[in-house]
Amino acid sequence: MISENIELDISASAVWQEQFPEYGERIAACFEQILEHVPEAQNFERFTHLELSILLGEDQDIRQLNKNYRDKEQATNVLSFPSLSQDEIDLSLKQDSEIPVTLGDIIFAFETIKSEALDQGKSFSDHFCHLCLHGMLHLLGYDHMEDVQAEEMEALEKNLLSKLSIDDPYQD
């Protein structure tokens, strides 16, 4: 269960509401796994108010963001925009501030996720959960630009997904 000081601010387009109405439950289940099993999230309950903003959009939304922020003129499945570094999170905890802390923003593209799930023979829900955990880990400083980082991030994703009874997304 997510503590009362943590707010998941979720905004969903009509297509998400119509075709995947359980999105809120799945996001909460993923965030609970992050809180329980990721060291960088262990102190989140100590914040007076912590917010994570999630936009469940469509390809057109994410395509524009991907162009603006990554110079890529195409849709992608998920984008994460951290608001704080791990050092800033640690500093906020030490200061015991009453100021609300925003962890960051995660944006998802429905059509891309649906297409990938179909192509990979996965359920939409399982693929979405993988990407949800992936995006949350990016907000906590995890990355996959170098092999060592990618292996660490993938191992953590596999572990978290197994706790949600979701198969390893990286197996051939």
| CATH topology heading | Collagenase (Catalytic Domain)
Side by side, the strands of the main sheet go: 1-2-4-3
Name of the CATH homologous superfamily: Metalloproteases ("zincins"), catalytic domain
- Overall morphology: globular
Between the first and last Cα atoms, what is the distance in angstroms? Answer: 33 Å
Mean pLDDT: 91
β-sheet strand percentage: 15-25%
Q: Round the Cα radius of gyration to an integer and report it.
A: 16 Å
Number of strands: 4
Helix share, percent? 40-55%
Listing every helix as H and every strand as E from the N terminus to the C terminus, the arrangement reads EHHEHEHEHHH
Q: With helices defined by DSSP (H or I, 4 residues minimum), what is the helix count? A: 7
**Sequence stretches where pLDDT stays below 50 over 5 or more residues:** none
Structural class: alpha/beta
